[in-house]
Amino acid sequence: MVIAALAVSLAPFSAGLGKGYSSPAIASLQGPGNATRRDFQLTDQQASWLASLSFLGALFGGMAGGAAMRHGRRRVLSLAAAPCSLSWLLTVLATSVRMMCITAFLGGFCCSILTMLSQVYISEISVPDIRGCLSAVLKIVGHLGVLFSFTIGAYLDWQQLALCISAAPLLLFCTVLYIPETPSYLVLIGKDEEAYKSLLWLRGPNSDVAQELATIRTNVLASKNFSQRQSQMSSSQLINSFDVRTMNRLLGPILVTCGLMMFQRFSGAHAFSFYAVPIFRKTFGGMNPHGAAIAVSFVQLLASCLSGLLIDTVGRLPLLIVSSVLMSMALAGFGSYAYYEEVHRNQRIQNVMFHQTVGQNDWIPLLCVLVFTIAFSLGMSPISWLLIGELFPLEYRAFGSAMATAFSYLCAFVGVKTFVDFQQALGLHGAFWLYASISVGGLCFVVCCVPETKGRDLDEMDPNYVQSLSPKR
């Protein structure tokens, strides 16, 4: 399981590299090195399009990934890796900002498929006791990708950085060839013998997997028969059969996962990722904004490592609650400091000694950002994606995963694109106060709507799953 998880983790690593690309690339494109290249003179609005279009591509990639999932988790991972690498090579050869925007859209399309399929793959191959830990590995390597891009982006220009990133999807394509397909999918398409071999590969050659395979076979076939009965029904019969229990099995997970994704994407986390250097330049008096961005990314990586241990010991719901509280406080504190800086900007320019005093207070906004990053990485970020694989029943997993992922990327696109607009309309402080208010709303949503899934079997591994598909008497 661990080997397969590490191989598949190259998918979120590739996505993390792409996520971390925008900040150093925009700095490179707007820097003095591009002063003679008229096609690459970015305005703030153009930069926001370049940063956000990958999420618009990811929106359509989520839809395509859900439809493609029926052809196999492992197969789709390998097929999406090659065009992802190609999109980065086209970025290297880009001759205009417009071409870079197109390649950003294509890269986001492929990364969305890779991210969703890797999460589903981990959920289907892992046992409940370590599913949260293995799922957190995906988030950890994703943050490692961001850190890698931030670090080497400080020394490379946008073309050299894109060339380095293109190698990661190619490596994913090679490693996926050596891991098995998930047992659940193999049973679903009638390849029980291959499913048995897959379980032996995942659990170990000396493991007794007969009982687990029997449970998976019984539940997957029951789910398959249920789906076939649903597809054979007429429209009126289908509406009549859509009782409260069915609504809870499908609509409940959709509302929970989409709600979490909305609050996650509008929490301000992407502002710190895609506009880190411009934000830090406006709030820090003397600290190097590039160094601060790398430091925050490193702390995010460490927090993600810790989340893998806490998710399966503390539980999903307590972590979400603590995460939301700390995020709200940190965002409010950062907005308040930004307001203080804006109010005293004129005094700071006129009075050198006051400027030095303010520069000595750079630890305040940095502390707020670090607290927010730790809280976000421990709870809201990994658990939102983990619940996509855990909440949806098997018969609705492909559809539900695609819908939740697509909605997530739609919110991400809007969130990244509108940060510049929020900043212009409300000021930097007002934008982060708005994000703090949204995080408070997320806290209320978590307390009222999100269930605890710690230690719960997935449907196809639950011995009582068949009873849940039986007709109501």
Automatic annotation (TrEMBL):
Main location as per UniProt: membrane
Residue ranges of every copy of the Major facilitator superfamily (MFS) profile domain listed in the record: 1-454
Transmembrane portions of the chain: 47-69, 76-96, 102-122, 134-154, 160-179, 250-272, 292-311, 318-340, 363-387, 399-420, 432-451
Pfam families referenced in this protein's UniProt entry, alphabetically: Sugar_tr
Annotated compartments: Cell membrane
Transmembrane found in the keyword field: yes
Membrane topology: Multi-pass membrane protein
SUPFAM superfamilies in alphabetical order: MFS general substrate transporter
InterPro entries given in the database record: MFS_dom, MFS_sugar_transport-like, MFS_trans_sf, MFS_Trehalose_Transporter
GO molecular function per UniProt: transmembrane transporter activity
Keywords, in A-Z order: Cell membrane, Membrane, Sugar transport, Transmembrane, Transmembrane helix, Transport
Keyword Phosphoprotein tagged: no
GO CC annotation terms, alphabetical: plasma membrane
Cited PANTHER family: FACILITATED TREHALOSE TRANSPORTER TRET1-2 HOMOLOG-LIKE PROTEIN, PTHR48021
Name recorded for this polypeptide: Major facilitator superfamily (MFS) profile domain-containing protein
Gene source species: Euphydryas editha
Taxonomic classification: Eukaryota, Metazoa, Ecdysozoa, Arthropoda, Hexapoda
